[in-house]
Design a protein that fits this description.
single chain, 120 residues, alpha+beta, tt1808, chain A, three-stranded antiparallel sheet, 3 helices
Amino acid sequence: MIASRSGGPYFTPEEYLALERESTIKHEYRQGLVFAMAGAKKSHVTIVGNLSGLFFNHFRGVEDCYFYANDVKVRLLEGDGYYYPDMTVTCDEKDNGLDNSYIEYPKLIIEVLSDSTGRI
């Protein structure tokens, strides 16, 4: 589902981030369009949970690297977008100074493919 606003279908990144702060559901942003995130199937959640445990344990001892699952956005400068990957790792100190709601310098992005993410 694509979100819309009174000024037309396209959002600026700033409008998207403001929408996300107030919304009760997650949205992704691609080139001005805002998409509501669909719920996941049990099998997807199980795979992400199992992998999250492994990656969390691995990165727990790695200095200056942080592992996140599910609810942290990643801003991709190429392609003009904000996404919620299943898991991500950042080891870049520049991410510490950014808005606390997203990562801009991911070292690793992990996405368990589903029908919808496989089309992106």
